[in-house]
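Recall the central idea of this unit: under ordinary conditions, the amino acid sequence of a chain determines the structure it adopts. In this exercise we apply that idea directly, starting from the sequence alone.
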Amino acid sequence: EDISVGTPIANRQRLELEDERSGFATRELLPSGWMPEGRRSFVVLPLFASDQIGLLLLEFGPGQGELYDWMREQLSVALQGARLVRRVAEEIAQREQAEHWRRQQELSLAARMQTSILPRELRVQGLDLAARMLPAPEVGGDGYDVRPFARGCWLAIGDASGRGLTPGLVMLLLESSL
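Accordingly, the structure predicted from this sequence is:
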C-alpha cells in the first residue's frame, strides 16, 4: 500500500525489488528529500494484515518500545480496514453491474416477446386499419390483436399491469388463448 505522512508527494511510487533478497539503500526508505540530515537511528517495523502490507519507519527514541508496537498494530488494523472497505465497494459495484446487465437482458427479451405476438397483417374487409406499437424503455404486458370474422372483427387491446418479463409472459399467454 502507498502510505505518505506529512506533505503529499506528487509522484508516489512503490519500490519493486527484483527478488526478495535484493537490497536497497537505507535512504530509499523515505522519498527523496525526506530523510533528515545527519546521523539518526530508526526503527523499521513490518505492517501486517493477512500478509505484509508495508513498513513503518520511526525515529528511535529511548523508552518508546511499547509505543512502536502500538503504532504498528493501529496502522496495520487501519490499512486492513481500508482494504476491506475497498474490496466491499468493488464487490458492490460488480453486483450492481451484473444486476444492470441482467435487467437489460430481461427487458430485451420482454420487448421481443411483446412485439412477436402482434398481428403481422391488419386486413378486415370493409375497414381501413392501422396500428403500431413501440415498446417503452420499461417493457410491460401490452398488446393488441385484430380477429376478423364474417360481419367485421374483434379488436383486442390488453395491458397486464407491471413492467418487465412477468407481465410480458402474461400477455403472451392471453394472446395464445385467443
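The helical segments are 65-116, 165-177.
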